[in-house]
Amino acid sequence: MNQLLSDRLNSLSPSETLAMSQKSNELKAQGIDVINMSVGEPDFNTPDAIKQAAQRAIEENYTYYTPVSGYPSLRKAIAEKLEKENGLKYAPNQITCANGAKQCVCNAILALVNPGDEVIIPAPYWVSYPEMVKLASGTPVIVSAGINQNFKIT
């Protein structure tokens, strides 16, 4: 228990993902060949095109806070990509850019869940979801939908 953190945070379970990653790193340090699939860390360097685009963005002063939902030009480009490549039609105002899906899901849970609300989480699920619900003072309810159901809740 960390006395600097709130009771709410201290009540959460330790991250299983980080524990798996730590174990993987320990095994690697022992010289064991391990493929770490726990934290989603890429096993490749950032592609040159992305590095160059990031440098251009800095040179063009894209260094200030962005609009909460993302730059309108980016949201428009995403809408166009989704329609062209995926056959999905969305307006730019229906798209939000975030720093990652997990953070976006957590933000949605914190915005929508009231204390005591039950939140249905279909299994299989990402291990963080129940803890996110608990952080919002909700109650996670795991609903299994296995391979026999094609992972569909009915």
Key features of this structure:
8% strand; Alpha-D-Glucose-1,6-Bisphosphate, Chain A, domain 3; 154 residues; 42% helix; globular; mainly alpha; two-stranded parallel ribbon; 3 domains
Secondary-structure map:
Layout: H1 7-10, H2 16-29, H3 48-59, H4 72-86, H5 101-112, E1 118-123, H6 129-135, E2 139-144
Parallel strand pairs: 1-2
Helix pairs in contact: 5-6
Detailed description of the structure:
The protein has 154 residues and is mainly α. The chain has three domains: 1-36, no CATH class; 63-97, no CATH class; 98-154, Alpha-D-Glucose-1,6-Bisphosphate, subunit A, domain 3 (Alpha-D-Glucose-1,6-Bisphosphate, Chain A, domain 3). The protein is 42% helix and 8% strand. The protein has six helices and two strands, in the order αααααβαβ. It has helices at residues 7-10, 16-29, 48-59, 72-86, 101-112, 129-135, and strands at residues 118-123, 139-144. The longest helix has 15 residues, at 72-86. The chain is globular. The N and C termini lie far apart (40 Å).
